[in-house]
Protein: Ubiquinone biosynthesis regulatory protein kinase UbiB
Organism: Pigmentiphaga soli
Amino acid sequence: MLTFLRLIRIAFVMYRYGLDELAVSSIRQPWTTRVLAVLRFGRRLDTPRGARLRLALETLGPIFVKFGQVLSTRRDLIPADIADELARLQDRVPPFDSELAVECVRRGLGRHPDELFAHFERQPVASASIAQVHFAVLHDGREVAVKVLRPNMLPVIDKDLRLLKAFARLIERVSPDGRRLKPREVVAEFDKYLHDELDLLREAANCSQLRRNFSPDGPRADLLIVPEVMWDYCSSSIFTMERMRGIPVNHVARLREAGIDLKKLARDGVEIFFTQMFADGFFHADMHPGNIYVSDRPESLGRYIALDFGIVGSLSEFDKNYLAQNFLAFFRRDYRQVARLHIESGWVPPHTREEELEGAIRACCEPYFDRPLAEISLGQVLMRLFQTSRRFHVEIQPQLVLLQKTLLNIEGLGRELDPSLDLWKTAKPYLERWMNERIGFAALRNGIRFESQQWAQMLPQIPRLIHHRLSEPDRSEAILGELRRLRGAQEQGNRLLAAVAGVLAAAIAVALWALTR
């Protein structure tokens, strides 16, 4: 019943903002003119279509807002006016009341903000689908950003997730690709990450982990800045971190005015992505422009700043090795290796012919090599690969859905910064270096260094274990005797089974003879 009522709500919002008219107007057929006349009868749809779509998504709630955020980064797939409006969803969702935010801080941290902070700004500086951010100053003078969770979020999200799960079950039943696409597993993965995002202590822990991976004192300090977590001012509904200053990554004109090298910035973005994915297996999975800034301070000019750590992804060692070998094989145009990896991993049925899969992958990817990013649409490549995967019954891996989403975000950012960026040539040297570290002499040296930490405990035990093994009585004769008894019992059982089968066969023969007389 709740799902049915939510469907009615969605249909009402679509009608209210004229999304039905927007969908029909995009169809280039003669009959659409008459349908549009019927749909527009009695309604005034003077507001621009992009604004209507944005308002509808805001009205429907956080899951739909997140969908709009992802869509806003794909300017190659949607018209510019719609992309501009959807971009407002990244950090300009209507905020909730400031006094309510103050009450949330008081409940979350146990004291009034005016007592906790030397100064707490009532007016939020940014507002997103899950939370909004207020600037504040600690009593020791440090400037911080306080993220406050929107109240009563869980019931709204659970309603939409029930609806998504119903859609997933329906897809599995009616679509021939339903079982292969694993829609229920994908929705379950989305459910997990959304509920994780509602726990701001988990987000603070994600921020702290990413800061360690890109430590200010480490070798990656010149790539990414991650704010420090103020743990004394955090709870499940409040997240306080160091205040960051910079320029949103999609404000290209401001970046140029600040003297930032956009080509280097685009290359650094690719390196950050592959470093997180392969070196750490832990990556920021919500990289839309509202969450990524660029420092304009002289001491850190041109360095990325990461914000909003509610959605992160992680990869197992198997996933990292599999993806790295696939990427490297793609960059080397070794499509036979790509096909072999798919078969060995179990992503395609074992009876798949390797040469057929190789030819299909080559037809998908070969046209896109040696082209600048401006002429490549990763969305189109993925669509062609999806059509190929349907033919070969490739199983979609739910744990990689976040990675696919992040890859699309990276492409959208790269297009705005440097459309001439050659994604393949930029990533290939990094992947080759990483693979050499994983399977070359360096990998052997690192493995020995890691395992040697355990040898200090095991080496002293070796003489005792050898003496214990050598001093044990010889049990080989007893084992051989037991094996002979087992063989004898098995042979006796086989003879009994053969006798029973003979008796049954004779009984059946007699019965058939009697029936035919």
Remarks:
- The first strand starts at residue 119 and ends at 120.
